[in-house]
Specification:
about 130 residues; alpha+beta; OB fold (Dihydrolipoamide Acetyltransferase, E2P); 6-stranded antiparallel beta sheet; 3-stranded antiparallel beta sheet; 4 helices; about 35% strand; globular
Length: about 130
């Protein structure tokens, strides 16, 4: 249900490492809970974020929510496609709907995150 190559937070963010760059987004579960995403606020390129910091924001027809950094690092890229097409978060949360990328991440921080199986179990517990 959730991509195995990613790590997850209990706040429903995901992170995927690719050659030392860490891509961050929200999970399909979070996107479903939000409903239709109408606006995304992205961080500034070059911004330093700590693990757990509010790094971006997302608004939907139902709610507004912060997007927290699953790991700390420096923002090296943002997904400008979301400014014109925020619905990508709902349509393709793991590929086209990513929010930002981080570099300078300490891989040790990944140890505190959930793997796909643990996240799936956590989501199942939240639904009850």
């Amino acid at each position: 249900m959730f991509p195995k190559e990613m790590k997850y937070t209990k706040d429903h963010e995901w992170v995927r490492e690719d050659d030392g760059v860490y891509t961050v987004g929200i999970t399909s579960f979070a996107a479903e809970q939000l409903g239709d995403v109408t606006y995304v606020e992205l961080p500034e390129i070059g911004a330093e974020v700590e693990q757990g910091d509010s790094a971006a924001a997302v608004e939907s027809v139902k709610a507004a929510s912060d997007v927290y950094a699953p790991v700390g690092g420096r923002v090296c890229e943002t997904n400008h496609e979301l400014e014109a097409a925020p619905e990508l978060v709902n349509q393709d949360p793991y590929e086209q709907g990513w929010f930002f990328k981080l570099e300078g991440v300490s891989p040790a921080q990944l140890k505190s995150l959930l793997d796909a199986d643990a996240y799936e179990k956590y989501v199942g517990e939240q639904a009850h």
